[in-house]
Design goal:
Length: 118
């Protein structure tokens, strides 16, 4: 992700393996989730944690022939604007999954412009 953004003139950084945030772009603290396309045409982004100090969620969908993405501010994720968060395990409310259809995602080529608007 950092190399792709760099190719488009966007400086980014990240912490080490134990860093609470995956990607930093300026003041943005971005949690990155990836998923491959399922046979039902959806992506399942696992282990979304609202108790971490990220400001935006970036979901990267991997298809056989293309890459897709979507992103939301943390508040939109928490309020269900990004979609319904489902608990990863019963009787816990720490880690969730978010399922998105491929047709609800954007082509990766739109990512640099989207980042610049933030």
């Amino acid at each position: 992700m950092r190399r792709y953004l760099h190719l488009h003139g966007i400086t980014s950084g990240n912490g080490g393996r134990a860093s609470p945030v995956d990607l930093r772009i300026g003041e943005l603290r971005i949690e990155v989730k990836t998923a491959s396309l399922g046979v039902d045409g959806t992506f399942q982004f696992n282990h979304v944690r609202l108790d971490r100090p990220w400001s935006h969620l970036l979901c990267l969908g991997i298809c056989p022939d293309r890459l897709l993405f979507r992103g939301w501010p943390k508040g939109a994720v928490a309020e269900g604007v990004a979609g319904k968060l489902v608990r990863m395990a019963e009787e816990q409310a720490v880690t969730f999954k978010l399922t998105k259809r491929a047709d609800a995602m954007q082509p990766i080529e739109d990512l640099p412009a989207t980042i610049r608007t933030l």
